[in-house]
Amino acid sequence: MSKGNVVAFGPVWDPAGAYGIGIVQFADDMAVRSFAADDPTIKGGAGFRVEIHPMPRGVITPGPAVSAA
């Protein structure tokens, strides 16, 4: 997140079975695949998998305004 590539991460409580989702932004497909392959959960070999699906258009709303009080 500190590098600015992560938009959101978290669990999805799907009635068919919970799973996690990550929304990331990278300059190219190779960088996304490298990021996914380096995920500690994937590297741990515990049976988890990554699916990569492009989102050609997305909207990110700005967070709430923070005052400098």
In whole angstroms, how far apart are the ends?
A: 26 Å
Rg for CA atoms: 15 Å
Poorly predicted regions: none
Q: How many helical elements?
A: 2
* Largest sheet data: 2 strands, antiparallel
Tell me the strand order in the biggest sheet.
Answer: 1-2
What portion of residues is helical?
10-25%
What is the global morphology?
globular
Fraction in beta strands: 15-25%
**Structure class:** alpha+beta
**N-to-C order of helices and strands:** EEHH
Mean pLDDT: 87
Number of DSSP strands? 2
Describe the structure.
The protein has about 70 residues and is of the alpha+beta class. About 20% of the residues lie in helices and about 20% in strands. It contains two helices and two strands; from the N terminus they run ββαα. The chain has a two-stranded antiparallel sheet. The longest helix has 9 residues, at about 30-35. The model has no long low-confidence stretch (mean pLDDT about 85).
